[in-house]
Predict the structure.
Amino acid sequence: MNTAEWASDLWRRGCERLATELPEQQFNTWIRPLPPATVAGEGADAASALVATLKVPNHFKRDWIRRQYAARIEAILTELAGRPTRLELALAARDASAAALAVPTSAAAVPQQPSLLPPEPSAALRPVVQPPAAPVVLPSQAPASAKHRINPQLTFDTLVPGRANQMARTAALHVAGAPGITYNPLFIYGGVGLGKTHLIHAVGNALLKDRPDARVLYLHAEQFISDVVKNYQRKTFDELKAKYHSLDLLLIDDVQFFAGKDRTQEEFFNAFEALLAKKAHIIMTSDTYPKGLVDIDERLTSRFDAGLTVAIEPPELEMRVAILIKKAEAEGTPMPEDVAFFVAKNVRANVRELEGALRKVLAYAKFSHKEISINLAREALKDLLSIQNRQIGVENIQKTVADFYKIKVADMYSKKRPASIARPRQIAMYLAKELTQKSLPEIGELFGGRDHTTVLHAVRKIGGERQKNTELNQQLHVLEQTLKG
Ligand SMILES: Nc1ncnc2c1ncn2[C@@H]1O[C@H](COP(=O)(O)OP(=O)(O)OP(=O)(O)O)[C@@H](O)[C@H]1O
């Protein structure tokens, strides 16, 4: 096993272990999306420490992972490697290997001997948990190597509409009907499993239905990165250009993966400009809004934001019910509404989890030869429900929010009023109201004997601000997901 394989294997095993230790939700939110880890020091003196470097896309995630998981990751890697292993969390572009890359400032400035350049830092180590394999579609004119299918199941018809995806769906429908005109680029962001990939496939499918000869390409950002690396190594820049610059519609998933990949960003910038100039449409997805992206060149992020940026939120109860009913029907096993409500009330995080729960219920009904009922669903989802039903306590909310904003838990009960303390306290009150059954006076009591009107004020203030302030909204999502763990 060579060094890269050894490091990759170590990280893979570390992830497997973490996946068994952490609630699925936390693993999926914090560990699964991480780009590749590199490990330095292996193979040297067996007593010396290894340094595992994980690249994280922004300060926010770095701080959270450092506080919540770094010690455990270090302990696991130390055990698996049999050597002390220190964890470093690097903002993608600032680590040494990325900084060492010479980056051409324009396509014309590409070095004459690109093979002398090292590949993108992550090229040697693939992420352990890959993003879902990305189907690609190109019509007949496309280079043969890139001919694959877009997923025909992911259409507007199979996408359940709701408040959570209303804006994004409307914008996507608009683009599908008249690509290249308005909302270009369309930037869709939101948490894991909320339907971003589904939505952009739906645009591709719709356009191809109208115009079967349209050149449509769907790909995950990781594939773009490896395409750039491959073409640089082979010096086939024309192929790269031919593939991307000639499209009518480019659908690119998870652009946060471009963080720190300067050469990739350069090529994407070129493709982006070429496509917009010829009125081809670009739709991107990401886990955060353009200004929240870190280590992506500002000239790119400002362009990302120049068309329309829309969020997809976690689905509300009615939408979750509708999704369950529709998907059960598609499986040929209708789900009674009361059962759908029961499942939807208990599985709240995202659509992917909802699908997982549905699969369990359907399989349970099939193998036990029983009708689908609430009792059957309760039995089928026993493990999941025991986790969900773990009460979220106000104390846990106070601790999580205090950790997150780096204040003392004691400040949650104190009378201190500086904004750096008062605001996290208001956020904790808001979450306490949202995530627990406690009344306003009870919450006030748990926050150092405050009056219920103070709690009400905080709940209204944070609730109102979250509608307008994307950064706050994002932070609240992260806190909610972590607390629901
Ligand atoms: N509104 C919806 N109606 C029907 N199915 C949905 C809806 N939203 C999501 N899904 C389904 O949920 C699953 C997860 O969705 P998808 O892969 O599109 O999420 P995502 O936001 O791209 O997540 P990630 O960032 O983790 O890739 C898919 O099977 C998708 O078809």
